Amino acid sequence: LATGPRQNNSIFYEIRTYDIKPSKMKEFVEMVNKYFHLRTAHSELVGFWSVELGAMNKVVHVWKYENFAQRTAVRHALANDNDWQGKFISAALPLMEKQHNEVAYLVPWCQLGKPPKEGGVYEWVTFQMKPGGPALWGEAFRAAINAHINTGYTKLIGVFHTEYGLLNTVHVIWWNESPDHRAAGRHSAHEDARVVAAVRDSVRFLESQKNMLLIPLQCSPLK
């Protein structure tokens, strides 16, 4: 398998995806908005979203850790936090159908970004790549990402590749002003020869892809 440039620090991101019981989604979101400050007191939340399109009754949240030792300490502290366990966990767990987590790194050529303003929507695109990591597909994938950025219709937030979970998975987070703004931009991009050429080159390394439209929750730092 290919190896190549990696980040020069130990920072990683934990991506958590919860499937909520259909009849309990409203209740779950209300609980998050009311009590999630108890969780963010322990570690840094990057973003927390509910899925609007591409899946139903699902939430996604991303946490930043300096290293695995920090995550271990945080998980231990949470297990012993009576407020968090009593006010949120004990009430929230019965509302969930499934939980899934992944550990991911930012690709070497990407910094975590922020939207230019609040009030937009996020697109979460998951690519299943051929084995080899960023050293294999990184340059072609970067060219495809930059081609979309250069159209000016979208804002890149981050590109992550998995370390734990389903390997050779890449998650890309985009920001747009609205779903209609995203749709109009996508139509324009599909007619842009530069975008078409870059995408055609990158799909040599692609197995599958899926996308979701996300709405940030009240507690989300990325809004």
TrEMBL record:
Record Gene3D superfamilies: 3.30.70.100
Signal peptide as annotated in the record: none
One GO cellular component term: mitochondrion
Pfam families for this protein: NIPSNAP (PF07978)
Domain NIPSNAP intervals: 13-111, 122-221
InterPro entries, per database record: Dimeric_a/b-barrel (IPR011008), NIPSNAP (IPR012577), NipSnap_domain (IPR051557)
Source superkingdom: Eukaryota
GO biological process, one term: mitophagy
Family, similarity comment: Belongs to the NipSnap family.
Identification of the protein by name: NPS3A protein
